[in-house]
Amino acid sequence: MSGQIFIHKAGPGLSVQDLGRLGQTHIGLSRGGAADRLALYEAAALLGLSVPIAAIEMAAMGGDFEVTQPSRIALTGAPMRASIDAHPVAWSASHLLQPGQILRIGAATAGVFGYLTCAGGIEVPPKLGSRATHLSAGLGAALTAGARLPLGVDNALEKGARVLRCDNRFEGGTLRYISGPQTELFDATTRARFDQTCFTRSPSGNRQGVALDFEGTAFAAQAPKGLASDFIQEGDIQMTGAGHPFVLLAECQTIGGYPRIGTVLDCDIPKIAQAPVGARLRFAHVTLAEADRIAATQENLLQNLRRQSTDLIRDPRMIPDLLAYQLISGVTAGRDLEE
Amino acid sequence: MSVEYALLPPSAGPQDVQILPLGQDGILVRFALRAEPWATSAAQAFYDTARAAPLPHLHEIVPSLTSVLFRFDATKTTRAECARQIAELLSGRDWHTAMPQPATRIWRIPAAFGGEHGPDLEAASKLAGLSPEAAIEMITTTPLRVLAIGFAPGQPYLGLLPKPWDLPRMQSLNPQVPKGAIAVAVRQLVLFSNASPTGWRQIARTAFAPFRPDAEPAVPLRAGDALQLVPVSGDDLTGLLASGDPAGGAICETRE
């Protein structure tokens, strides 16, 4: 029998997200899905899943959660303060959540998007091949306090807690990008200055994209009058009418009219999605050949992450119910014999 | 700094058609940077050609106003191989005179022009140098095609309208047009999927829903479909809106 996950308290930006919808450009629907897809791969690695599954994405702030059946959970993406029944638990790790326990997830301590994945999966019905909420398309809605979502059964409760040391992608950095169909609309001087400029993540941003601030003159394109609208995609670096960069994220539109200087590599998207307001960002142009070489290193992402994950070793002083654990083979506190 | 641009040297493709990278798994065939009528016809015609061709390992082929996008499966083929096949498809044809194949489906969608359903009709007609009546006549008798679907889900770009309709976008944004609104600019019409701000002028409204997330198919229109707006009174449209039918009185006729 499957259960439910209750959301008792909810931050303002909670939604169900998976890897999104590929191949829907012909109906004008962008991929959508998790703003930081790597976090879903990390969750799958921690929980020993064969593929990433739908999770609850939490922008900047989490909430209070409870499950009706035992479930392993993974906490990935932007690190957030988290506790189970008021006992702090590690981020970028998996844990066992029992019915009746309250999982409390607070504010992000770095980055923007945190993810709560339940091993049994959130089983809201898929639409157009995905469970991802696509707010700008009107598919699904943000999760609010009082929501109850169907939860699949976790068939591997015996698997122990795991932890993963994740790459720090929560404080900006360098974004690698390739040329796109409109790169040539920017002259060599403008492109060189773009690569040398230190940008900061502007306060303006959401799942559709983020604006970048900088000092100096605007990045003007030599676009002809009447430039036709054309395909745009996640990772594209648009220059708005004022010549300010705006990097498109998962929920962007599919056709746009602003000139674009290039496209951020898929594997660097988490860094821009997770950059908190004020984080410093730079761009580094790479050739298509280099981009292909980098993409090839991502092919076995899930297996590689699984290999990097280790058993979560907890400090015994932090374990309140130490005697409930089987510390020596064959010796227990006895409770498990009654259960 | 050297930036690679076209995937193939211009000599590999005919005329000024460009084969360009778009993201790590996309190739864009662009006929023109500006919205020129020949390029729009060429994009539609090349979309017909590409769909009929045995191109392996593609996820998607999608037309836009002046370009066609190919998404390839990077685990099964390479960008270079895909670009080579696309160049082959392009060769040996004068794309400046290419015309798309006749539509296999034609939509007739009731639309109310002017008044509360088309607040910018008068201003737009004036810019086009026409009376509102002549404007309605011209728009409803022009055989339109779905040139592209995008920006928002299901939302069609329709065109091309005759030359007088080469109107610029408005100086300031129209703060909100309703779902179903028909707005005009640059010889095209857009039928809005959702209420939206826009720089285009709203001349009419339909009760047709271009995006129906709970229906199959979720998006009834397809690129290449022919489409005609059938003028109805404001009261008739109000009735169609009130009925809640997502088709909004539209009829789709299929031709073999």
UniProtKB/TrEMBL annotation, chain A:
Domain of life: Bacteria
SMART domains xref list: AHS2
Entry-linked Gene3D superfamilies: Cyclophilin-like (2.40.100.10)
Recorded coiled-coil stretches: 288-315
Entry GO MF terms: ATP binding; hydrolase activity
Domain Carboxyltransferase: 26-301
Pfam families the record matches: CT_A_B
Keywords: ATP-binding, Coiled coil, Hydrolase, Nucleotide-binding
Name listed for the protein in its UniProt record: Carboxyltransferase domain-containing protein
